[in-house]
Here is the input.
Amino acid sequence: MKATEILAHFIVSTNLNAIPAEAREVGKKAILDCLGVALAGSRDPLAKIMIGLIKDMGGQPQATVWGKKIKTSSPLAAWANGTFGHALDYDDINRSMRGHPTVPVLPAALAVGEELKAPGKEVLEAYLIGFEVEAKVGAGINPHLFEAGWHPTAVLGVMGAAAASAKLLKLSAKKVGLALGIAASLASGLRQNFGTMTKPLHAGQAAKNGVIAAKLAQRGYTADSAIIEAKLGYAHAFAGLGKYDLNKIVARLGQPFDIVSPGVGLKRYPSCARTHPAIDAMLDMVVRNDIHSEDVKSISCAGSYTTPTMLIHSRPQTSLEGKFSMEFCMALALLERKVKLSQFQDKKVQDPKIQEIIKRVTFSIRPDLNNIENSGNPSTTVKVLLKDGREFTKTVDEAKGTPENPLSSDEVRDKYRQCVKGIQTPKEREKTIGIVEDLEKLKKTSTLTDLLRGK
Here is the structure.
């Protein structure tokens, strides 16, 4: 049996009862986290542009656009919601993917689930299966997918979104294989667009195209049935000849589920995850040693050689660039002793005090993290040299929020509440939390999505 066929059979044969309780519970935390971040993202400037276009495009009112009080076709709803969910770069991460697992899959699953009037248990089931598919495919074709300049959230996410949509549509294994084949040709996203509106568009495109792929397959649209492993197929195209491992994709499907191990990280800060160990280190040193910006001569950060390939804006001028700037995040943590969603604004990035500190920050490659085997290691060392000669150094291997150092259930709820403040009423907010935490018992998806319409 070939890789594509094995994936298709896994998607069709896996049901919620066979998915471990731990995976279901972690999944519901990730779902709540994504919904909160997406509702916050629905207030980002890019949302207004997208909604204007969606209204021009029309579409049957099948699914809710979160935070906007409108409905559109399920593919377009997935497109908008996936983009909103990634707009703030505050959404979850997974190391097999080297990207963001929930934001391409959940918007697809909820849009199709709402259209079909599916119960919550089917949406949760589809989401967990989609997560597993994109993560295991990522394990087989990373790190070379990432190293080549592709954005894994986009390229892998469309496969997860297609898997989730196909599961909800109850496609046969043959048609699921076709859906994956279609989705593979709709996969794209370039890391050079980090720090612009197009990066979150990658997640939205993955969600939308996953829905479209499944719906086309449902209607009999054809594609190559061996798209993952074929000579000119997905793995070869995105990783390169001989640079992928099909066994890593199929040998351990659901054993364990990737959402459990290596797990999913829920972000504490609204910036690229590679800034988080350094932010934790800086905040700890600043508070513990009462360090003030005017006393700092230099800030030196050191980590993996892949970190600067993600943090590509060393002299940022916009909030989006600031999310992909180690220099800005270090300046913010030093000057204001906190890193919050409200601080990521153009005027904050352009603040002369921030810009002056940015010039004092450098990044270098740690010798132990200068090879491809350690390319996914986020460990970062921060050294602060004061003008009086004193020096403080701290290394953080696992930032708060990673699977090894996770947010508690209360912290996840609090993050959700902060994200949706002013968008949902307190009653809607608490009801949403309760529904997601007991998603298996939800009778109809629209009961949840109606709460996501916002003010």
Observations:
- The longest strand covers residues 296-303.
- The chain has two domains: 3-267+407-452, 273-396.
- The mean pLDDT is 97.
- The CA atoms of residues 304 and 369 lie 5 Å apart.
